[in-house]
Amino acid sequence: LPGAKSAVPGAMSMEKVTDYKDASTYNNFYEFGTDKADPAKNAGTLKTRPWTVEVEGLVKKPGKYGIEDLLKLSAQEERIYRLRCVEGWSMVIPWVGYSLAELIKKVEPQGNARFVEFVTLADPKTMPFVGSRVLDWPYTEGLRMDEAMHPLTLLAFGMYGEVLPNQNGAPVRLVVPWKYGFKSAKSIVKIRFVEKEPSTAWNKAAANEYGFYSNVNPNVDHPRWSQATERRIGDGGGLFAKRRKTELFNGYEAQVGQLYAGMDLKKNY
Amino acid sequence: MNKLLMHPATKPAVFLLCLLPFARLAYGAFTDGLGANPAEFLIRATGDWTLRFICIVLAVTPLRVMSKWNALARYRRMLGLFAYFYVVLHLLCYSWFDMGFEWGDIAKDIAKRPFILVGFSAFVLLTPLAATSFNRAIKAMGAKRWQMLHKLVYLIAGLGLLHFFWMRAGKNNFAEVFVYAAIIAVLLAWRVWNYFANKRGKVKPASAGAVRTG
Question: How does this polypeptide assemble, per the annotation (chain B) (predicted)?
Answer without folding.
Answer: Heterodimer of a catalytic subunit (MsrP) and a heme-binding subunit (MsrQ).
